[in-house]
Amino acid sequence: MLPLYQPTLTDSYGRQIKDLRISITDRCNFRCVYCMPETGVQWKDKSEILSYEELTYLAETFVSLGVTKLRVTGGEPLLRRGVINFIRTLNSIPGVEDLALTTNAYFLPEYAERLSKAGLKRISISIDSLMPKAFELLTKVNALGRVLEGIEAAQKYNLTPVKVNMVVMRHINDNEVVDFARFAREKGLIARYIEYMPLDGPGEWNRDMVVSGKEIFEKINAKYPLKPLIANHKSETAKRFTFADGAGGEIGIIAPVTEPFCGACSRIRLTADGQIRTCLFSLSEHNLRDFLRSGASREQLRQFISTTVLKKELGHRINEPDFVAPERTMSCIGG
C-alpha cells in the first residue's frame, strides 16, 4: 500500500484539486439525448481501457498528491464487471474521505446492497423524467420503473444522501421541474437540476433549449417556497435549498451556462482510456495511460499529474463567441 503522503495539488490559479472523477467505462445501456448519439457510437477497444489494477494505482497516486474525494463514473459504471471489488479497493486507500458513484440506477436493485457493503458512501442517479413515455424518449429505454426501484434500493442500503439529477431541457422536460421537486419532498431526496450543456451526443445543443437556474428556482419557489442553505465548501457546484415548510428533501441547482462557478473548481477527470481532462470542456487531453504503461515510476507519475494540473483552464468558454465544444461526448468524458 502506498504510504500516506499528501502535498497540495494546486493549479496555476491557486485552486486546490481535491476531487477526482474516475470513469471506468465509455459504454452505457441508455442513450440519453444530451450524452451520446443513439447509433454509430465508436467504443474504445478493451486494450485502450485502463484495467482495475491501473485505475487503482493511479487513484493511489492522485490521493498521495492531496485528492480526498473520488467519484466513479462512466458511461454506466455498473456495466463493467468487477466494479464491486474496485469500490472496495478504492475505499481502502488511506486518505480517501469521500467515495461516490454516478449511475443511471438500472442495475441498482441488484447492486445497492453490495455497493454499500463495499464501502460506497454516496450515490448520484440520473433521471430526467418521471413520466414513462418521456423517460423512454429521453433515454431510448423503457426502464423508468426499474430506475425508481434503484432509487428505493439506494435509500434502503444507506447510500445517502441520494442525489437524483435532472438535466432540464426546454420543451422536452421543463414541464416536470415542479413534479421533480415534489418527488424529492415525498421521498426525502436531493433533487439536482442541471442546465443543459453543449456535450450532447447528436451535437444539436441550442442555447434556446437552456432553462436557466434562475427560471428553475422561480418555478419551484412559486409552488414550494425555498430557503437557501449555506454551502459547505466554496467549490460546491450547486446552489442548495431546503423547503421553507420543513418538508424533507433538498433542492440543488447547477447552472454552468448562465452562472458559471469555475472560479472555485476543485475537480479533475480521468477518462476510462486514461486521459486526464482538466476541465469538462477541455479541447485537449493529457495521456496518462501511455505514460503509466511506458514504465514511469510513481514519482514520475506524480510529476506528470502536477504539471498537467498547472494547465487547468481558468474556466469554460461556453458564453464566449469563440467557444468550441469538445469532440468527445459526456459518455466518453465521464460525468
Overview of this protein structure:
- This protein has 335 residues and is α/β, with parallel strands linked by helices.
- Helices cover 29% and strands 17% of the residues.
- It is built from ten helices and twelve strands.
- The chain has a twelve-stranded mixed sheet.
- Helix 3 links the parallel strand 3 and strand 4 (122-126).
- The longest helix is centred in the N-terminal third of the chain and has 13 residues, at 52-64.
Tags for this model:
about 325 residues; TIM Barrel; 10 helices; 12 strands; globular
Going by CATH, the homologous superfamily would be: Aldolase class I
- In helices, the fraction of residues equals 25-40%
| Low-confidence segments | none
SSE class? alpha/beta
CATH fold node name: TIM Barrel
| Outline | globular
- What is the count of DSSP helices, taking H or I runs of 4+ residues? 10
Radius of gyration: 19 Å
Please specify the SSE layout and strand pairing.
Elements lengths: L18 E5 L28 H13 L4 E5 L9 H9 L6 E6 L4 H11 L3 E5 L5 H8 L4 H13 L5 E7 L8 H11 L2 E6 L17 H11 L2 E3 L10 E5 L6 E5 L12 E4 L4 E3 L8 E2 H6 L4 H12 L20 H4 L2
